[in-house]
Amino acid sequence: MTHTVHPYSHRLGIIRDWKSRWFDVKDKYKENLKSDVLIYEYLYKRLKGSFVNSIEIERSVKTFRIIIESSRPGFIIGRNGEGLEKLRSDILVFIKRKKFNLNEELKIDIKEVKSPESSAMIAAQMVAEGLEKRMPFRRVMKTIIDKAFANRDVKGVKITLSGILGGSNMARVESKKVGQIPLQTLRADIDYAFYEAKLPLGKVGIKVWIYKGEIFTKQG
Predict the structure, then answer these.
(1) Which among 47, 79, 112 is the end of a domain?
(2) Whether residue 166 sits in one domain with residue 84
C-alpha cells in the first residue's frame, strides 16, 4: 500500500526548511508549538483576500518575528503603515486572549512575491476566487494553469477540485494537469497548497501542485 505524503514535509532537510524556527527556547516546546499553530490559523483567516503565499515564525531570546509573503504587500501595510500597525496590535490582542507568554519584541516583516502565478497557495486562492464568483470550474482551472505555465521556471502544474461542482447533485473529483509532477524525486522543487472555496452548495477543496525544476547542491 502507498501513503500520501505532503510534498513539503517529504522534503524537509533536503531542499526545504522549517516554517517555525526557534533559537534557544527548548524548554518551552509544548507552549511554542501550540501558539504557533493558533497564530498561523488566525493570520490566514485575518489576511484572507490578501493573497498570502506563506507565513513563517522565528523565535529568539529577544525577538518574536513573523514573516509574511504576499503578492499584495501594500494591501497589508496600508497607507503610511496603518494596516501593519493594526495587524500588529490585533496579533498582540490575540496572544493575550489565548494567554500565551510573549516576553519578546514582536516584529512583522512583509515580503512581496515577485511571480504570484508560480505560487501554489496564491494559485489556489485565485481558483477559489473564480469559483466563488460562479465561473465555470473547467474554465477557471484552465485559466490558472495557463497563467502558471507561462512562467519560464514552471515545468508542471496540476489542479484538483473535490466537491459539488457545476451544480450537480453529487460530489466528485476533477483534475487537470500540464507538464510533469515528479512527486517521488526529493530534489524536485514542488510547491503544494490546499485551500477551500465556500460555495452555496458546500465547500470545494482545491489542491495545487507546481513543479519548478530540480534543486542541486553546490557540490553537485
Answers:
(1) 112
(2) no
Question: Which pLDDT band, with edges at 50, 70 and 90, does 219 fall under?
Answer: very low
pLDDT at 140: 96
Residue 90's domain comprises: 17-112
**pLDDT of res. 99:** 87
Angle at 129 between CA 124 and CA 133, to 5 degrees: 145
In a domain, 84, yes or no: yes
CA distances from 86 to 49, 54, 83, 91, 116 (A): 17, 20, 5, 9, 25
> If we measure between CA atoms, which residue out of 134, 111, 101, 123 comes closest to residue 176?
123
Q: Which residue has the cell 496540476?
A: 158
Residues 160 and 203 reside in one and the same domain: yes
Q: How many helices (H) and strands (E) does the chain have?
A: 5, 8
